[in-house]
Amino acid sequence: MQYQNIMRAKYKLDGHIHRTPLTLSKTLSDITGSTVYLKLENLQKTGAFKVRGAWNRIAQMTEAERARGVITASAGNHAQGVAMAAAQAGIASTIVMPVGAPEAKIAATQSYGSQVVLYGANYDEAYEHALQLAERSGAVFVHAFNDPHVIAGQGTIGIEIMDELPTVDAILVPVGGGGLISGIGLAVKAVRPETRIVGVQPEAADSGYRSWRAGAMQSVDRPLSVADGLAVKRPGDIPLAWMKEVVDDFTTVSERQIRDAMFWLLQRNKLLVEGAGAAPLAALLKGDLDLQGKRVVLVVSGGNVDFSKLADLYAQQQSMAEPSPV
Questions:
Q1: What 3-state class would DSSP assign to 269?
Q2: Which of 141, 168, 190 is the last residue before a domain boundary?
Q3: pLDDT for 248-267, tens place per residue?
Q4: Label partner for 308 (CA 20 to 30 A): which of 67, 76, 248, 252?
C-alpha cells in the first residue's frame, strides 16, 4: 500500500518538480573502492528535496482547506517547498522558522510570497509556535516529516534511483525527522529488498540514530549542527515506525566530517551542498560501513547554503579547528 501511495505521488508531482540527476563520481569511486553515485537533490526546485513532500501534501487538500491557507515550521528547506507549492496552487502560506535560520533560506521563502515568522532557537520551538498559530487562524498545518503524504512525496526519490540503478547495493540518506529515509526505504525495499538503506545523522543531533537503535522514541535536548536541516529534537512517530522496518544500518558523523565533506564536494565535484546534503559523503569517507566493491548512492539532499556561514566554515577548515555546532 505504501509503495502504491509513492507511485501516486510520482504522477501527482510530474511537471511540478525536477527529476534530478543520478551521476557517477569517478573520483569518489576511486578513493573509496565503491562505485559511487550522487542523487543531486541540491539541483531540485527550491534547492532541496523538500518540495516533493510539500507538493504531494498540498495536492491532497480539499477546496475548503485551500481557502484556509497553509502554515508550517521549518529550518529552511521545507519552508521553501511549502512556499513554492502554495504559491503555484494559489494558496496563502505562513512559514515559522527558527531565529537562526540561514538568511538565504529566509529570503528564498519570502520570494515565493509567504509570510515568514521567526521564532525559537531551533525547529522544535518554531514547530510549537506554528501549531499555536494554526489553531488560532484555522490554517492547515503541513508537517515537515510526520505526515504520510509528505513521506510519500519524498519516496519518489527512491523510485527515480531504482529506475536508473536497479542493482544499487546501498543508499546513504541524511536523517532529521525521518521522512526522507522512510519514503526512500519504503520505495526501494518494495522493489529490491536486499538494497541496504543507511541513515546518517550528526553526532550532535542524533535522536533518529538513538531512536532506531533503541526501537523507541529518544530525544536530544539541544540539537545543534552545521547540518541545520537535521537538527531536530526527535524524529516523527510515523517515520520512526517505518524506519524500524526499512533502515538496515545507521551511523553518525562529526561536525568536522560534515564540514570537510561540504568542501570536498565543492572543490572536487563543483557542487554547492549544505551540511545535511554532505552528511552521506561524510559517512562514506568515515569508512566504517563496509561498502567496498558495492554500488552506492549518496542522497545529496540540498544545496541551500548561507554564504557567510560558508566563509566561516572555510576559515575553520583552514585553521584545522573542530567547528562548534551552528
A1: coil
A2: 141
A3: 999 999 999 999 999 999 98
A4: 252
